[in-house]
Write a structure and sequence with these properties.
Blueprint (H helix, E strand, L loop, with lengths): L11 H16 L2 H7 L5 H13 L6 H16 L3 H15 L12 H18 L4 H14 L2 H8 L9 H15 L6
Length: 182
């Protein structure tokens, strides 16, 4: 995939690495949603679809549909933590749709799952921000050098977005400061 006038180039392997990173982030809090809605498989299905793409599958309608279904599941959850965990699952499948546009908003495709997962962890811990910071630290260890390289091709994320937006910006700053070996 070549970028438009932006000059950002994303290979299918780049997209697979970003999606694997997002799926691992979402998977870390899936139990939060499943504890709230044990019979609702939509977030798990979204994460499974993300992993399928990351491991060589194709992007297509089924992947996009599972992302949307996880978002719908978030709206039906009983707790705020479960809603954020389902949004992390949605973001994991949505990561496969990162576009080669030099727009700050595209960073959410890379880091959204990690930020939603950190927010879910905070909410489980009675909105303890130190838990979110600790969760972001674990997220840093999930990032490969490819994920960091892809992130650095995009502008910094925009302001706004509430606490999840703040977590995205924190994660972005931390990842951009990393130097990882291949």
């Amino acid at each position: 995939m070549t970028g438009e006038a932006s000059g950002i180039v994303l290979s299918k392997q780049d997209l697979r690495e970003v999606t694997a990173f997002a799926a691992a982030c979402a998977e870390a809090v899936l139990e939060v949603f499943e504890g709230d809605q044990p019979d609702d498989l939509r977030p798990r299905d979204a994460i499974d679809a993300a992993w399928e793409f990351a491991r060589g599958g194709e992007r297509g309608k089924a992947l996009r549909d599972r992302a949307w279904a996880a978002l719908t599941a978030a709206k039906s959850a009983d707790t705020a933590a479960a809603r954020e965990a389902a949004r992390a699952a949605m973001a994991s499948a949505g990561a496969a749709y990162l576009h080669p546009l030099a727009k700050a908003t595209q960073v959410k495709h890379i880091l959204g799952a990690g930020a939603y997962a950190a927010r879910a962890a905070e909410l489980v811990a009675d909105d303890d921000r130190s838990v979110g910071a600790g969760h972001l630290e674990q997220t840093l260890h999930r990032a490969t050098s490819v994920v960091v390289d892809v992130l650095k091709r995009f502008p910094a994320p925009p302001s706004g977005g509430g606490r999840v937006g703040e977590l995205i910006r924190m994660l972005d700053a931390d990842l951009r400061s990393l130097t990882l070996a291949e």
